[in-house]
Amino acid sequence: MAISGVMRPGHCQLRVLNLDESVKFYTEVMGLKHMGFDAQGRAYFKCLDELDHHSLILRQADKAGMDFYAFKVRDKATLEQLDADLRAYGVATERIPAGEMLETGERVRFTSPTGHVFELYAEKTMVGNGLGFEAPEAIIDGRRGISPIRLDHWQIHGPDLDGSRDLFVKVLGFSLVERIKAEDGVTDVAVWLSCSTKAHDIAFVRDERANTLHHASYLLGTWEQVLKAADIITIHRVSMDIGPLRHGITRGTTIYAFDPSGNRFETFCGGYDFYPDMPVITWPFEEMGRAVFYHTRQLNERFLTVVT
Amino acid sequence: MAISGVMRPGHCQLRVLNLDESVKFYTEVMGLKHMGFDAQGRAYFKCLDELDHHSLILRQADKAGMDFYAFKVRDKATLEQLDADLRAYGVATERIPAGEMLETGERVRFTSPTGHVFELYAEKTMVGNGLGFEAPEAIIDGRRGISPIRLDHWQIHGPDLDGSRDLFVKVLGFSLVERIKAEDGVTDVAVWLSCSTKAHDIAFVRDERANTLHHASYLLGTWEQVLKAADIITIHRVSMDIGPLRHGITRGTTIYAFDPSGNRFETFCGGYDFYPDMPVITWPFEEMGRAVFYHTRQLNERFLTVVT
Amino acid sequence: MAISGVMRPGHCQLRVLNLDESVKFYTEVMGLKHMGFDAQGRAYFKCLDELDHHSLILRQADKAGMDFYAFKVRDKATLEQLDADLRAYGVATERIPAGEMLETGERVRFTSPTGHVFELYAEKTMVGNGLGFEAPEAIIDGRRGISPIRLDHWQIHGPDLDGSRDLFVKVLGFSLVERIKAEDGVTDVAVWLSCSTKAHDIAFVRDERANTLHHASYLLGTWEQVLKAADIITIHRVSMDIGPLRHGITRGTTIYAFDPSGNRFETFCGGYDFYPDMPVITWPFEEMGRAVFYHTRQLNERFLTVVT
Amino acid sequence: MAISGVMRPGHCQLRVLNLDESVKFYTEVMGLKHMGFDAQGRAYFKCLDELDHHSLILRQADKAGMDFYAFKVRDKATLEQLDADLRAYGVATERIPAGEMLETGERVRFTSPTGHVFELYAEKTMVGNGLGFEAPEAIIDGRRGISPIRLDHWQIHGPDLDGSRDLFVKVLGFSLVERIKAEDGVTDVAVWLSCSTKAHDIAFVRDERANTLHHASYLLGTWEQVLKAADIITIHRVSMDIGPLRHGITRGTTIYAFDPSGNRFETFCGGYDFYPDMPVITWPFEEMGRAVFYHTRQLNERFLTVVT
């Protein structure tokens, strides 16, 4: 049966140091479509192929990072049910009225054990991808920059990884797909969770720094587009992190770089499809190099330590 | 939430005219792994990347075509529930005992309005893909022939398309993703249905010939592998149908050819991900050319008429 | 040693039925750069990656087809030498003064045995590809339409194939790379000739229709770009011929369509590198299907018969 | 006109520390075809697509590195001419008799100013690629490991870069394609030279260590095959250097690793075609990062310093 419950990452609100510079970056380099501003001055963006009004909101602030991460759920009944389930689990929830965010219905907001603020919502205006739903063309032409297909997932860091993992699995219906164990062979240092057939919709990493963002990730269609993303990053002199490379975890092929505020982003392609009858894949601590960087099989200081 | 209910196409039993020749074809040209024979003389195959014991069974017979199409469901409770739902809907079901098919649990069998025989099952031995579930490698080497990732879907033909469509949507939890309308603009001549985030797990086409198979489809990872499939088809002088090409429907890129018994198969890549908040895509009758053959925008006699 | 003598196809002058429509087509769909018009009203174009001022000239006329085909030669001394060699071989030559064609030096013009008009030239203004020659970027961004790398070769038809073949091999220093034999097993019905390490810089096909053009061909970088060309062709409703496909001859992967005047063009990728110590590859007449259409292994009426 | 004079890298003799281990490596991981041993115990290899008997010879020794680098020339007359030209230029030459190396004609051997030993030869037995020269198939199936198309070029280091550069350009007919300048803006620290339409057939780097090898390079067909090479390198736990990445110089996409003896190899794809009317591309010293590593735009200690 098609996805029910929590469906996918829906939007996220990113703090940027200079809004004008960031609007330019996300439009020209990332190739997102700028959908406008709201009364609070927040800038809204969607990927060209996305159907909903926006998936990225930028808010100017003094410190980079992510304000909150939102998932779209199947319908209003699901939203109500999940709100009740969260509260029954002991998680305080808050309602953000419809319209507080442009084109978005009521949001149920809560804070996870790792300190991250999450939202669930059921309604966002569907603006379409320009192709329509009657005998559509197969491609969207006139793309610029990296031009990913959609906001795909986030990797976020915080101390109580077990708490966030359990919340997502037990209450929000996520499945554990892959995990890296600590040296003790028991404790999870990182988990990849899916609410779909994607290898992951979110990843948590144990880190003493609560409520931090490792990266927001956008989907590309092919390995050739990962190369193009790398080339675009270079011609625009974007601050590079690492790539092109393949991850052992999820098998995805990817490149990481930093937006003008130092928020890390990923543009990736591939990986296997997850079905819930698949056993969890476990990486012992000593295999972390190959897990993260399948080709070099070594960890990278910046990749491990920089978060916003 | 991850897939529940009906998860994916699980296995199908194909009638072949010469078993030895077909075992050779599916091993050397398709690149499947031959898992052995059962006491009835049926040959079992899996794609290298698949985790379950088999997805294709060959049975020697006088006439090509497909005996039955099976979907794997989430668990035994789901199997029981769907069996009850089918009967409540007026569809007679039959239980095939565990073990009748190697390594497979009990199957619930029913016949659809289009005359096709379907099965649902919850259990099949997981033999793995050779990579294991601890710090696995990212690729399976030593592949031969076309070597697809998995059995992906089928396109099947029969008269009561509405009946099968309604059964799959109302009882089995499938979603309607795309449809082609008849000249009257109302009647469906073809429907693409998904039980996952795939653009389709099965497609039905209206055809006076009940219980026929248009093609069984296998997934490839990239457009480059579609080219390789086409080259493999040529070097083995496999009977070609059409491709490489792109479909307007689902946007998948693909090639079609015939196995030694004349059963059509497809090896394809790509297409968008389906979420249940997406509107149905509709193709008017006059757009059928571009819907099926996006590049040539014309239909092809053989593709429209040959079924087994 | 690097290419000497005749180096590569340099420019060609194509007759189009409607200049405005064609300028739009070659700019928006083909993605060439329009370099302007001359006093005669001819429109000039270059591919983005090409360094010289232009490779395609359009001249409005009542009948589609190609006025002439020009090769760039190594230097003026080579030009003089080839002029002398042609005349010594019995081929009348004519000098077209520098500047008759914008930004182009003196041209030596002659007519081949198949009736085609050829030119040789040594000088054309180098305008560059926008990247410069100091620490250049690796990609040109902002491409539109199909956007090929360069004009690559032509396939042209005429009766005295042997005459044109011998002229190109004996006088112009081309190498015979591949050939298709007639049913008699002796006569060449088609030849692929190279003046470089390309599998061909020109192909001649025996045809009672003298001085005709089968196609002008442009190079793409990858098979993925061939798919994109096919998609671009569809979204612009360009008149399709055939593809994506692979040729047995040269192994190139390609797609063919028609410009608004009915002139066939090809956008292709790949093929092996030719070195002059390679034996000629010969295709018997009965293998012509696989030679031309490697996957379908069958000839196509329109592809065989339509020329301009 | 097709390539004349020096045509391409023809063979090289690599010193390996353990012959058995190296034969296994070059067969299973690199995917070359082992052609046998000679009376001296040297192992011979060819890439599957190459037509000549071999392009790589392994000789067991106590120290890794390359014994000599050989280019194939157009014919015996060219060989004689180049021998004379070398001697006229003041370079001592030596004749190695036909048969000293299996299946190879007489070789003209000389030492370049950078201390590297080079050979020129005109004859090597053509064993073919298994496809034949009559109506051949377009692909070679049953490949294993990385399976490159051909030996493509070498990057070698030594002190008198100017001397080797001038020898290759003035006597051997190579063209200077790209260069990196020293901080003084005048001195070449590295040069890329071509004897064909390849962006380079050899590269020299100024280095106080005479007669050293940076890498031997093999050609792949696509960026997807570069990813596959990277995956193969990982599954065999080959000692990695760096990649996948793109070079600013030549634009090639590539990956570098070390054979079991520590000799670095490259498997790459792409880059532009060189014609001798192209201006030389120059990289100022401060752009060396982007020149070598286009995406990270930073140099890498190991890549700069490790040679054999």
Automatic annotation (TrEMBL), chains A, B, C, D:
<keyword id="KW-0058">Aromatic hydrocarbons catabolism</keyword>
<dbReference type="InterPro" id="IPR037523">
    <property type="entry name" value="VOC_core"/>
</dbReference>
<keyword id="KW-0479">Metal-binding</keyword>
<dbReference type="GO" id="GO:0008198">
    <property type="term" value="F:ferrous iron binding"/>
</dbReference>
<keyword id="KW-0677">Repeat</keyword>
<keyword id="KW-0560">Oxidoreductase</keyword>
<feature type="domain" description="VOC">
    <location>
        <begin position="8"/>
        <end position="123"/>
    </location>
</feature>
<dbReference type="InterPro" id="IPR017624">
    <property type="entry name" value="Catechol_2-3_dOase"/>
</dbReference>
<protein>
    <submittedName>
        <fullName>Catechol 2,3-dioxygenase</fullName>
        <ecNumber>1.13.11.2</ecNumber>
    </submittedName>
</protein>
<dbReference type="InterPro" id="IPR029068">
    <property type="entry name" value="Glyas_Bleomycin-R_OHBP_Dase"/>
</dbReference>
<feature type="domain" description="VOC">
    <location>
        <begin position="150"/>
        <end position="270"/>
    </location>
</feature>
<dbReference type="Pfam" id="PF22247">
    <property type="entry name" value="Diox-like_N"/>
</dbReference>
<dbReference type="InterPro" id="IPR054560">
    <property type="entry name" value="XylE-like_N"/>
</dbReference>
<dbReference type="InterPro" id="IPR004360">
    <property type="entry name" value="Glyas_Fos-R_dOase_dom"/>
</dbReference>
<dbReference type="GO" id="GO:0018577">
    <property type="term" value="F:catechol 2,3-dioxygenase activity"/>
</dbReference>
<comment type="similarity">
    <text>Belongs to the extradiol ring-cleavage dioxygenase family.</text>
</comment>
<keyword id="KW-0223">Dioxygenase</keyword>
<dbReference type="Pfam" id="PF00903">
    <property type="entry name" value="Glyoxalase"/>
</dbReference>
<comment type="subunit">
    <text>Homotetramer.</text>
</comment>
